Amino acid sequence: MRRILAGLVLLAALAGCSAGTLAGTVAGRGSAAPPVLCGGRAEPVTVVACVVADLDRAWSARIGRPVTIRVTVDPEPAEVDRGCRPFLAFGTAFYCPADDRAYLTAASVARDRAEFGDRLPYALAGILAHEAGHRVQAVVREPGLDRPGDAASRAVEQQADCLAGAWAAGAARRGLVDPAAFRAVYAREMEIVSSLKPPPGSGLEEYDEVATHGTPAERVAAYDRGAAGADPEAACALRRG
Predict the structure, then answer these.
(1) pTM here?
(2) Is 47:14 a contact under the CB 8 Å cutoff?
(3) Where are the domains of the chain?
(4) Of 2, 29, 58, 142, which is least packed with CB atoms within 10 Å of its CB?
(5) What single DSSP character describes residue 39?
(6) How far apart are CA 51 and CA 173, in angstroms?
(7) Around Cβ 183, how many Cβ atoms within 10 Å?
(8) CA-CA-CA-CA torsion sign (45, 159, 225, 235)
């Protein structure tokens, strides 16, 4: 998840559409029962469509404005605005303000499939919940989104983590996800993404995920603030510009 241009960072959609829970721990591929988010479907495109629908509904109702999230899975370079295209090489998910669309790369999906196995829907939902947080920031015109510097970027990113936690808590109350299992997957995803380095020749050699987003512990702490707060706007200090 990263800032692109001077605008937002990762943003994408997700949420659970079908009730169900995941019991037990989910630290790795083989532990406990499989998740049943989105009816137990594992196809990334299906999961994304399912969670996007829930995120749109949940955040639109919460902030009183339409929140429309558009996501492309496994984009071709020609589909991405030229200014955002270098982030395809990073192999994660990102939001491009130039075309108001989130992109989930094939490398990201493959990496999470190998890491989480049948828990892939929770991993995709965690990534997308963070991205949806960026969309919420854009819709409410959160002040400071264009502020330069790593410290400002970390504030924006961790607010999106907080909003991801707020959505996850609401999804858990609706019976869509198991909160402890979802948090465990989210925490592991933060560790994975924080360890990634841009490949040589990508034009992103100076990019630093931790500098721009915070440490995994800081990001999970932000997630926890959102998950524990009764009011997402207060818990995540969401302001309206």
Answers:
(1) 0.84
(2) yes
(3) 37-235
(4) 29
(5) G
(6) 15
(7) 22
(8) negative
- Asked if 159 and 225 touch (Cβ cutoff 8 Å), the reply is no
Q: How far apart are CA 77 and CA 71, in angstroms?
A: 15
Q: Which residues contact 220 (CB under 8 A, 6 or more apart)?
A: 161, 183, 186, 187, 190
- Per-residue pLDDT tens over the stretch 107-124: 999 999 999 988 899 999
Secondary structure percentages of the chain, helix, strand, coil, to 5? 55, 5, 40
Q: What are the angstrom distances between the C-alpha of 22 and each of 7, 78, 214?
A: 35, 38, 28
The span from the CA of 35 to the CA of 135, in Å, is: 26
Higher pLDDT, 114 or 203: 114
Which tokens sit at 215?
Answer: 């440490």
A 10 A CB-CB count for 82 gives 9
Residue indicated by tokens 């970390």: 154
Residue 206 CB contacts under 8 Å (≥ 6 apart), including other chains: none
Cβ atoms within 10 Å, residue 87: 26
Query: Mean pLDDT across the stretch 162-187?
Result: 94
For residues 226 and 217, what is the distance between their CA atoms, to the nearest angstrom? 15
Report which of 135, 138, 146, 120 is spatially closest to residue 13, judged by C-alpha positions: 135
Q: Are 167 and 129 in contact (CB under 8 A)?
A: yes
Cβ(177)–Cβ(184) under 8 Å? no
CA-wise closest residue to 139 among 216, 234, 217, 241: 241
